[in-house]
Amino acid sequence: MAHTDVYDDLEAEQRQLETVLARLGPDDWKTPSAAEGWTIADVLLHLAQTEEAVVATAGGQGDPVRWHELGATVDEAMGALVEAERGDGPEILDRWRAARRASVTALRAADQTQPVRWVATPLKPRTLATTRLAEHWAHALDITVPLGVDHPDTARLRHVAWLGLSTLPYAFRLAGLPPAPVRADLTAPDGSTWRLGDPAAANVITGPAGDFCRVGAQRLAPADAKLLVSGPQAGTALRLLRNYAVR
């Protein structure tokens, strides 16, 4: 796969989701999503709210949401935001459409060398765009799987796989373990191979890129994934794999 611009790919990921959302009927919006406790409309509201936060922080307005005041964890804060603004699906769709376009515009216009504030971690604009792509992809699964809608994997998953692999040192530290070098040899959706990470790493995760990314997004249990591990710490790495935001 040729390396593509993350902003272009973020927009493409959002367009793929928008195509699905534009076809939903009134009852579809009320369908329970794969995100526990949220309907399809709630999932999209969450995406709209966080895209609006991107616009504010990338535009230099600082932290528009005091996440720490809304819950003990980021997840609790996100849940509180959704609870406060639940509404009609088509109206939320319009809100998200405006926010997602404004978000990419703001990220493109930002100083690419300077981190912007994001929840608990300052991120450079391209890294923040990568996390937004991963977020939209994961929540698209939460929407399409319960509805039985086809949402095929694409080459854009390379960004998500990079994110998961790049944040493994952070995941090891969170678990109180010394980081271990890991590489991933992944089969892309088109059948090609993506080799990510240190080529000399003794710990290797091999298998479908889609499974690797779903494990990182906590949409697939490692035991259910078609992934193979080799090396003393590879199994631990797969267990700890998350698509975290990184600097």
TrEMBL record:
One of its GO terms (molecular function) is isomerase activity. Keywords: Isomerase. Transmembrane segments: none annotated. Residues 10-143 form the Mycothiol-dependent maleylpyruvate isomerase metal-binding domain. Pfam families: MDMPI_N. It comes from the Bacteria. SUPFAM superfamilies: DinB/YfiT-like putative metalloenzymes. This is Maleylpyruvate isomerase family mycothiol-dependent enzyme. It comes from Actinoplanes sichuanensis.
